[in-house]
Specification:
Blueprint (H helix, E strand, L loop, with lengths): L1 H23 L3 H7 L1 H18 L6 H20 L5 H22 L4 H26 L5 H24 L1
Length: 166
């Protein structure tokens, strides 16, 4: 009953604030729409609190992690724009990793989730930094990067095979 009262109170607070602002400035909605990522961030935080209070909604931790990352990153984007499309893709991978990490901490404690989180974070960092590398080191491109990665992975597997054999 108390949680229902909190949600109704929060809804009344938001509607009352918007109506009050509308009374004095009709363009307030356009100013508010400029800051749309803050609403995504607040909804992620609200979903986090809902999932913490009820243990039946463990998958909401995954959703709240995604919404919090998108809200934070696109709020930063309001003030400092991301120029590369790869930045948006890296935000996607970062949001997935934080959602899974959030689910791991509060929901399920399976060890394979941590390896997926690490892989997603490393992928996000690589995709975010790739335009910088490509700009300052023009020799690094996808034509040379994939063979180099395959060589490194093969070298690691061969070393791992020798170490495990002894």
């Amino acid at each position: 009953m108390k949680s229902k009262q909190i949600y109704i109170g929060l809804t009344c607070l938001i509607i009352g604030t918007l109506y009050f602002l509308y009374q004095y400035d009709a363009n307030v909605y356009f100013k508010i729409l400029k800051y749309w990522p803050i609403f995504i961030l607040l909804s992620g935080i609200l979903i986090e609190f809902v999932a913490l209070n009820s243990h039946a909604y463990k998958l909401f931790f995954f959703l709240s992690g995604i919404l919090i990352v998108y809200g934070l990153m696109y709020t930063i984007n309001i003030y400092r724009e991301f120029y590369y499309f790869s930045s948006h893709i890296s935000i996607f991978f970062l949001s997935l990793s934080l959602g899974l990490l959030n689910y791991y901490i509060f929901g399920s404690n399976h060890d394979y989730i941590l390896s997926i989180v690490l892989l997603l974070i490393l992928t996000s960092i690589f995709i975010f930094l790739f335009p910088i590398y490509e700009r300052y080191f023009p020799i690094i491109s996808f034509k040379t990067l994939i063979p180099i990665l395959l060589i490194i992975i093969g070298f690691i597997l061969i070393l791992n095979g020798f170490i495990n054999k002894q």
